[in-house]
């Protein structure tokens, strides 16, 4: 087994005594593509915030690249695409190039400016994501799919080893969603990028991911897509006795564990 | 009741014209220089406020500065030690304090970030009014601080403004990429390891400096105009951040120069005229865009 890029062990977290996560043990190995699914309010986003050190667990620990998250400082090793990226200020006067370049800010550090090497990195990232032709376009004028690729490019430009995506397909049309998963699949295969994807789209991700983890306060299932498919009825069997394994893809409604 | 607005009547029109006045009189030269300095630093700071949807913060801090100026005048009157201290500098200290308070409020009310503005604005005005009434009248014309008095800018003041502008330019130049990243997407910027607290604090400091420097030129009531109007105009015609900065600088410097010239020839208040020219630029751009759209529409129709 390769080194664990992200490891949560025995993580428990509650908001105002309301338990959100209980005894979470989860590992993302180097080079792995892990899909984390779960209904609304299952603690997915909280888990991301804990993984990024934005929240501290009540119990248990989080490790990034083998280091406790409290001490971790090499944030440029992680690319992050937030849920909010889809609802940014549409009137912001920035081009695709400027947005992607801003992804290098943390890695460069204070007082260092974008030089020749960085410009080559930006051009290369734009090329890889098929954004070269619209590099000079205003970000607000792009389609949802193009905006999303711009945000991925911003996260990837610093050449991170781990890419964390928090529900990146919310509010994006179906065609773009499919393209988006093909893109993630390609990045994962060709560039050996470790990916943690938090999503609602169970069916779309099974083809691309190595493992699926189902979260609802606890990790209810963790295994390969094949195992998930085989045990799907059982896994999605509800605790309160309702089977919703065949439920629709309405965000947040598809699974109740 | 008649309110004397500084600037009006301060300069008699002469047949020599404005340029000769500038060549011959120090106070005119200082006025133009002060105007150009403020025209340079206001939109540079303003653009980050506008894109972060915090344009009104400048207004709030300007009112806090007013209370600081009042405190400075009061101290001047009663404490001998403060007789050498310009009330504007006390105002600036208040403004920095206000900026730090705004940051604190923004963190406490993450989902209601704009709430910081009325809190600080009304607090500033409240304190200012109380201090002014406590002083029982000042020798200095408070109206000069409210509406600006660019022709009264002294030698010392000009040097101080140049120093303040230097600091503001340094902050924007050195932390441009951090400020851009934080303005575009604060969450991702913070996660990427940018020292956001420091940068935000430094930026608040720059805003306070710009306000203190602008008060002489346009006055407390109009300080935010030079920070936001040129940016609002630039946003209409630019798709990139760098261009937006460039255009807003162009618009604000033209507004300063045209405003000063118009104020001189028409004998109007200079601060007010500069702001009116800024509004005129914005309205002209909006109108031009509309006319262009109509023309395009018309040519399409005639093609059919």
UniProtKB/TrEMBL annotation, chain A:
It comes from the Bacteria. SUPFAM superfamilies: P-loop containing nucleoside triphosphate hydrolases. InterPro entries: AAA+_ATPase, ABC_transporter-like_ATP-bd, Metal_Ion_Import_ABC, P-loop_NTPase. Signal peptide: none annotated. Transmembrane segments: none annotated. Residues 6-241 form the ABC transporter domain. Gene3D superfamilies: P-loop containing nucleotide triphosphate hydrolases. Keywords: ATP-binding, Nucleotide-binding, Transport. GO terms for molecular function: ATP binding; ATP hydrolysis activity. Belongs to the ABC transporter superfamily. This is Zinc transport system ATP-binding protein. It comes from Planifilum fimeticola.
UniProtKB/TrEMBL annotation, chain B:
Its main location: membrane. InterPro entries: ABC_BtuC-like (IPR037294), ABC_TroCD (IPR001626). GO terms for cellular component: ATP-binding cassette (ABC) transporter complex. Keywords: Membrane, Transmembrane, Transmembrane helix, Transport. The chain crosses the membrane at residues 31-51, 56-75, 81-103, 115-138, 158-176, 197-215, 221-238, 245-266, 272-291. It is a multi-pass membrane protein. It comes from the Bacteria. CDD domains: TM_ABC_iron-siderophores_like (cd06550). It holds the Pfam family ABC-3. It is found in: Cell membrane; Membrane. GO terms for biological process: response to zinc ion; transmembrane transport. Signal peptide: none annotated. Belongs to the ABC-3 integral membrane protein family. This is Zinc transport system permease protein. It comes from Planifilum fimeticola.
